[in-house]
Amino acid sequence: MTDKDATQGIVAEVIAAHSGQDGPLLPMLHDIQSALGHVPEIAVPMLADALRTTTAEIYGVLTFYHDFKRAPQGRHVLRLCRAESCQAMGAAANNDAIMQALNLGWHDTTPDGALTLEPVYCLGLCACSPSAMLDERPMGRVRPETIAAAVAGLR
Ligand code: FES
C-alpha cells in the first residue's frame, strides 16, 4: 500500500463516519487534520464528491479557517502575535527580525521539519506584548534573542 493509498483510506473512513450527518464538512475537516496533521490536497476532491459539491466550495472553507493546515506542520510550532496590542509594542519589526533570523516566512517550516512559523491574532497576553507561543508555552515581551534562545536545539 502506498502512502497515497493509506491517506485516501483515512479520508474515506472519516467521510464514511460522518455520512448522513447535517453539516458534516467541518467535522470531516477536523477529523482529517486530527488523523493526518493536515488536510492533504487529495482529500479535497474526495470531500467534494462525497458532499456533492465543488472543489472550490471545499477550498473556500479550508482557506477561510486558518487553523486548517494544508501541508504537514513542523514538530514544533512557533506562533508570533500580529494583533493590535502587540503591534503597538513593536511586533511588526520584532517579527520581521525573528523571521529573518529563522529564515522563515509565515506558514513556512524549516527544511528539517523541526519548526513551523505561524501568525496568530491575539494570544490573550496583551499585557505582556509583544507575545508568542512556542508549542504550548506562552511567551511575553519577546525579542529576537529570546526567541532564538527558545528555539535553539529544537529537533
Ligand atoms: S494582541 Fe498580541 S497577545 Fe493580544
TrEMBL record:
Sample GO molecular function, one term: 2 iron, 2 sulfur cluster binding
Record carries keyword Iron: yes
Listed cofactors: [2Fe-2S] cluster
InterPro entries assigned to the protein according to its UniProt record, in alphabetical order: NADP_DH_HndA-like (IPR028431), NuoE-like (IPR002023), NuoE_N (IPR041921), Thioredoxin-like_sf (IPR036249)
Highest rank taxon of the organism: Bacteria
Binding site for [2Fe-2S] cluster: C81, C86, C122, C126
Alphabetized UniProt keyword annotations: 2Fe-2S, Iron, Iron-sulfur, Metal-binding
Bound cofactor: record note: Binds 1 [2Fe-2S] cluster.
Family to which the UniProt record says this protein belongs: Belongs to the complex I 24 kDa subunit family.
Name of the molecule in the record: Formate dehydrogenase subunit gamma
Organism from which the protein derives: Paracoccus suum
